[in-house]
Design goal:
single chain, 446 residues, UDP-n-acetylglucosamine1-carboxyvinyl-transferase, Chain, 2 domains, five-stranded mixed sheet, four-stranded mixed sheet, 14 helices, globular, disordered C terminus, binds ligand EPZ
């Protein structure tokens, strides 16, 4: 999004270029698609680079806008980052040997949720930290109390003032930490803080997502001593220092799931570079929609065979339950499936903003207290809609691909946070989707 200011009668009107997608629905998708490295692995791994007194090379890193935002934070701290040509796509070179700052200001922190993941690493490396409250998709309150409780448990003094977290970690030592909820970010933050703390830290009731295992593997490749990620107890033995490494993150199970749903809705897709055992819940649900599925370890073929049948019901949960990050996309599938579908969201209290946009396309959805019933329609219709957040935006793309007529989706910068050039991948599969830049007057701050 690029902005320029025009001063008109003393009022500043910001003109912002907000990219949009223009989709003509009805094409069948056919062919192969290769899944990128996982956004939700790369973001904590980038935060973890703050701990590393050596050079890091991350292989095959897509330019997700959230990754670019984290690179800006590392550079603000005194680190260096550079994309370089890799064997496949681009690699990302990171060098945090000369980190000399310990603060993350609001203008950088507010762009991504993962900015809060830097608190533990800065504290562990620098001894003190000043980090502004994080941003991220507007899907709920998203407090950071569990992060802070864990960091205090390891001996840090934490002051939460004027939207900043001030912490000192001069007396950090390993401890037992019980998480009140299996928060992904809090598990990652505490893991990273414990890496350089004296003694042993045990994290009880941690998140068990594959991205937590990936972070463990990355940190251990730098000389950390962590075991148990993916289970209900993570043990970290503090070490003195971390050295550089070369690392390939796991593939993105949410991008993979998004394309699996696309295949079930309107095509025959061979989805490659997938750890299919990370998507077992989704694959089970899709197998109930009458699409044909051939599942292998690292790829999956999903073929739509006429109007899908409802998958019945999904209820989001922490891993290995049904992922909340695929909930919005399942609304798109349910909207055109035969029969009723029940969708319950348990993790984020306002992760339903995409429903209002789907209703504009003719979907039939009713919700009450986080429980939604979708009555599938033979047809939904193109409309002008706005991406409310990353995964809600992905849901609108899927709906646009099957809608009658054309759909304009505004605010696609939100989709760029976690899908790299999704329009190119869908066009290559036969989807009729184009990115357009359109200037919008954002009447705002005089
Ligand atoms: C991570 O967010 C992911 N983001 C999210 O993906 C994902 O939806 C979420 O985990 C759940 O799987 C990244 O990894 C960058 P949580 P995170 O802490 O860490 C509450 C996407 O679309 N909570 O597990 O913020 C919180 O409010 C994004 O790729 C507290 O109450 O998720 C929420 O209700 C969206 N206090 C629940 O826990 C805390 O201190 C789950 O949050 C922390 C969290």
């Amino acid at each position: 999004m690029s902005l320029f200011f025009a001063n008109f009668l003393g009022r500043f009107i910001i003109y912002s270029y907000m990219d949009s997608f223009y989709i003509v629905g009805g094409n069948r998708l056919e062919g192969e698609v290769v899944i990128d490295s996982a956004k939700n692995s790369l973001l904590p791994i980038l935060a973890g680079c703050i701990l590393v007194e050596g050079e890091v090379l991350l292989k095959n890193v897509p330019r997700y806008s959230d990754v670019l935002a984290m690179c800006k934070i590392l550079e603000h701290l005194g680190g260096k980052t550079r994309f370089i040509k890799g064997e496949v796509g681009e690699d990302l070179y990171i060098d945090c040997r000369d980190i000399s700052y310990n603060d993350v200001p609001n203008e950088l922190a507010c762009t991504v949720r993962s900015s809060i993941f830097t608190l533990g690493p800065i504290l562990g490396r620098m001894g003190t930290a000043k980090v502004s409250y994080p941003g991220g998709c507007d899907i709920g309150l998203r407090p950071i109390d569990i992060h802070l409780a864990g960091i205090k448990q390891l001996g840090s003094k934490v002051v939460d003032k004027n939207g900043y977290i001030y912490a000192d970690g001069l007396k950090l030592k390993g401890e037992d930490v019980m998480l009140s909820f299996s928060s992904v970010g809090a598990t990652e933050n505490i893991m990273m803080l414990a890496v350089l703390a004296k003694g042993q830290t045990r994290i009880f009731n941690p998140a068990r997502e594959p991205e937590i295992v990936d972070l463990q593997n990355f940190l251990n490749s730098c000389g950390a001593s962590i075991t148990g990620a993916g289970s209900n107890l993570i043990v970290i033995n503090g070490v003195k220092k971390l050295h550089g490494t070369t690392y390939q993150a796991i593939s993105d199970r949410i991008e993979a799931g998004t394309f699996m749903i696309a295949g079930a809705m309107c095509g025959k897709l061979e989805i490659k570079n997938v750890a299919t055992d990370h998507n077992l819940e989704l694959i089970t649900k899709l197998s109930q929609t009458a699409c044909k599925i051939e599942r292998y370890n690292d790829r999956i073929i999903i073929e739509n065979r006429g109007r899908p049948i409802s998958f019945g019901e999904i209820e989001t949960a922490v891993y290995p339950g049904f992922p909340t990050d695929l909930q919005a996309q399942m609304f798109a599938l349910a909207s055109v499936s035969e029969g009723y579908s029940l969708i319950i969201e348990n993790l984020f209290e306002s992760r339903f903003k995409h429903i209002g946009e789907l209703l504009k396309m003719g979907a039939d959805i009713r919700c009450k207290n986080g429980v939604c019933i979708v009555k599938g329609k033979e047809k939904i219709y193109g409309a002008e809609v706005t991406a409310p957040d990353l995964r809600g935006g992905a849901s609108l793309v899927l709906a646009g691909l099957v809608a009658e007529g054309y759909t304009t989706i505004n605010n696609v910068e939100l989709i760029d946070r976690g899908y790299f050039r999704i329009e190119d991948k869908l066009s290559a599969l036969g989807g009729d989707i184009k990115r357009i830049k359109c200037e919008k007057k954002v009447d705002n701050c005089s």
